[in-house]
Design brief:
11 helices, Metallo-beta-lactamase, Chain A, six-stranded mixed beta sheet, RibonucZ/Hydroxyglut_hydro, single chain, nine-stranded mixed beta sheet, globular, 23% helix
């Protein structure tokens, strides 16, 4: 089967995507933000309403408590086009910048005493590299540059082994969106896979885990728009174990101080992880790739502050597919309104990009002014 970005959707074969179990969601729906998203009057009117709704959400969210433990772990550093990550704003000759992808491990205790474990951004780097856009990008780089731009710090398995977390103890997996992600090894398949297990279905590494994903994004895999095609591996979602999937419909509270908010834009199925910690509220997604993209007036990256000021925009989008640019802007404002100021430098916010801009001498003019690098809350 071949999916081509040049074929109109009507001429592409529609994939059959694994259908999840029909069990009801175990999470509490959050209804504060959706009315503001739905109001008439266009994106400008919604933006004004969302600023107020985000403040209302934050007030309620702070009363839910805190998770027991949160910590980030570096997985990989990868190259990414500057024109996407610092959309239109950066003044640099560097066509690429570098981003660091991180795993976040979250644990909380339910009312009945059961401990839950969520892995946020558990990227399988080896399989993710098969994404069409990444294949093209990596193959275009000379080896000496590729070796500098692409670095491996750890794997999901090694992080969990060091923490002492057994695969069967992981309850949930999630990504802010499914660009580049292939989860077959994590949640298993119902049929043999020629590249992984040609003679038998893939056994799940996390046998009890469910992938939390916005329903729209999962269903959209069946017939991607040409703008989306280079960034997904839809065929890898065809044979997933249905019991390993748990679709979400918008905003949900997972546990004390742990929530997902629908923040479409970078990808239409994007959602942001919101955490209440000892230092205040943190937000994680890839809607922007640097904390300073939330407050560009304080950025020393050449071009960012001037561009934001001249164009009258208060954030710098991470825009590769540009599925719904205005909606992404509004989503970032939600994130900006919720995140607390960073303790290390209150000019910046506790917004932790799931792919954080990382300085590299090969990419002049892209060194971040401020980086979070690591987050830890509570004890494991």
């Amino acid at each position: 089967m071949t999916l081509s970005a040049t074929q109109p959707p009507s001429e592409r074969e529609r994939l059959t995507i694994a259908r999840p179990d029909s069990a009801a969601s175990p999470f509490t729906a959050i209804d504060v933000l959706q009315p503001a998203r739905d109001i008439d009057g266009g994106y400008g009117a919604r933006l004004r309403a969302l600023r107020t709704a985000a403040a209302d959400f934050k007030s309620e969210f702070l009363t839910t408590g805190k998770p027991d433990y949160v910590e980030t772990f570096d997985l990989t550093g990868v190259p990414y086009p500057t024109k996407f990550g610092l959309w239109r704003a950066a003044v640099t000759p560097a066509p690429l910048l570098k981003i660091t992808n991180r795993l976040t491990v979250i644990r909380w205790t339910e009312t009945g005493g059961r401990v839950r474990t969520l892995l946020f951004e558990p990227s399988d780097g080896r399989l993710g590299a098969n994404t069409p856009y990444l294949v093209k990008l990596y193959n275009s780089l000379p080896k000496q540059i590729r070796d500098r731009e692409i670095t491996t710090h750890a794997t999901v398995k090694s992080v969990l082994a060091n923490l002492g977390i057994k695969p069967q103890d992981v309850d949930y997996l999630a990504f802010d969106h499914l660009h580049t992600q292939d989860v077959r090894r994590w949640i298993g398949t119902t049929t043999p896979q020629p590249d992984l297990s040609p003679d038998a279905p893939v056994e799940p590494y996390f046998p009890n885990a469910k992938l939390l994903v916005q329903r729209y994004e999962l269903e959209a895999m069946a017939d991607l728009h040409p703008l989306q095609v280079p960034w997904y591996q839809p065929e890898t979602y065809r044979d997933l174990r249905p019991e390993g999937l748990l679709p979400l419909d918008g905003d949900v509270l997972l546990g004390p101080g742990v929530a997902f908010l629908s923040t479409p834009g970078h990808a239409y199925g994007n959602h942001s992880l919101v955490l209440n910690t000892d230092t205040g509220v943190w937000v994680m997604s890839e809607n922007v790739i640097a904390a300073e993209a939330m407050t560009p007036e304080h950025s020393k990256i050449p071009g960012l502050a001037r561009w934001a000021r001249s164009i009258g925009q208060e954030v710098i989008l991470n825009a590769n597919t540009i599925e719904t640019t205005a909606e992404q802007y509004n989503s970032i404002i939600i994130e900006k309104a919720i995140a607390d100021p960073a303790q290390a430098d209150p000019r910046f916010l506790q917004f932790f990009p799931t792919s954080e801009l990382t300085g590299l001498f090969l990419n002049p003019g892209t060194k971040p002014t401020f980086s979070h690098l690591h987050l830890k809350h509570g004890q494991f």
